[in-house]
Design brief:
This protein is α/β, with parallel strands linked by helices. The chain has 2 domains: 3-144 and 334-347, no CATH class; 149-327, no CATH class. It contains 7 helices and 13 strands. Helix 2 packs across helix 3. It is globular, with a radius of gyration of 21 Å.
Length: 348
Amino acid sequence: MGKADSPDYKAAIAASGNDIYQPIETDDVECWIPTRRLEEVLNKALCGKNLAGLPLRTRSKIVKSAVCEALGYPVPKSFRRTQPRFPGQQLDVYVQKALNLQVWNEQLAPARRYALIRVDAADRIVRVKVVDGGQLATYDTTGTLTTKYQARFAPGSNPLELLSLQDTPPMLSHLGAHVPGHFTSSPAGDPESGKILSIREVFGRLSPLVRRRFPDPGIDQERSRGAALHRLVCRSLGYQAYEDGGQFPDVRHQLLEVKLQTSPTIDLGFAEPPSEAPLGIRGMGGFCPRHCDVRYALFFAQTNGAQVEITHLILTTGVDFFGRFKRFEGKVTNKKVQLPLPADFFDR
């Protein structure tokens, strides 16, 4: 479906009679706005608006009112102090003049969308980025997220381990009966019923990556190492091009999270794999994917400083994750989360 044929979400929401506090299921194809489309809509409606000279509280109300109008919701006389501010679309809104996002008195939510609205020196809106809590969590450099989970990775003598022999029951009816060798869809796109590889097929396509090598960008370049592996994974699964939307899970189209481990500690962010919380992405025929439905591909690797060599692959569903990996107990708490955003965050 091209942009010209894409649903008119604004009209559908206006016709529904819903306000911003009415929950919408992610498989509601008329009223639930996919994240990429949501970003497009907000950019079109908000960019160019001038917020100069407005008190912070007034500015906040004007921005939230503009978001309501852009999405087709009636503007309430007053905005409730809900979390998130727009429960109907699982959306929070932040106006950013600096690249330091501050979240007060609540933890980041993995399935929540965050609209970060960039204003320039003249207080004019120039860009809107919509990301989920999982993506924002990757920018935490202080370790002060309200909840942060970890596990320990211990590779065994077997270089290939398929821990889950089949996918979770809700996933089974959405697996492709005759999977193509190559996909034309984006690996960062939402999953599509009938185009999802079974966990066994994923394992078969990724297994040849064990013993593969790729150049090591350096010990302080974990993100670049991960991107190099992600490219190999996309190619192995049959995608024509590599694309990383920076969201969870990494290969969103296959509900596949990819982790490269050169140390025993697995960073899980603030959502545990067995969690039954929804991911906040478009559902499929009444099924809204959850963290426990995600497939986790953990690649153990070693490096000599010049080359990274993949030595092990372990593949599991979120449900079975802690049957193999040791959970670290405990969590870190903090009343304020400060996230320094990358310099090019609004340019991506």
